[in-house]
């Protein structure tokens, strides 16, 4: 099991999850954050601080959000960033790229 960032993070990217992660496995994409599943130690600290309730254990991801399980993996593969498992966030591991699911996701309405 690993944790997964889902759609409520899109266009929010608060970043507190990244700051509290003890293994630095949460990386920034263009429109949302992504958890590198091989690096995640399943501590759950990110879940407790996420202001938009975007992070779930993969087995608990709501049905409508299930495509984000694959999206968190895909972000690190050759078709997007090609980073694999970088081993921790550094300035070189911030990207303007997103997986197609996120890149084409409708923008939230501004009120």
Descriptive tags:
alpha+beta, two-stranded antiparallel ribbon, globular, 20% helix, 4 helices, 111 residues
Produce the secondary structure layout.
Blueprint (H helix, E strand, L loop, with lengths): L2 E3 L10 H5 L5 E3 L4 E3 L9 H5 L5 E3 L9 H8 L25 H4 L8
Antiparallel strand pairs: 1-4, 2-3
Could you please describe the fold and organization of this structure?
The chain is α+β, with helices and mostly antiparallel strands and 111 residues long. Helix content is 20%, strand content 11%. The protein is built from four helices and four strands. It has helices at 16-20, 45-49, 67-74, 100-103; strands at 3-5, 26-28, 33-35, 55-57. The strands form two sheets. The protein has a two-stranded antiparallel sheet with strand order 1-4. A hairpin with a 4-residue loop joins strand 2 and strand 3. The longest helix has 8 residues, at 67-74. The chain is globular. The mean pLDDT is 95.
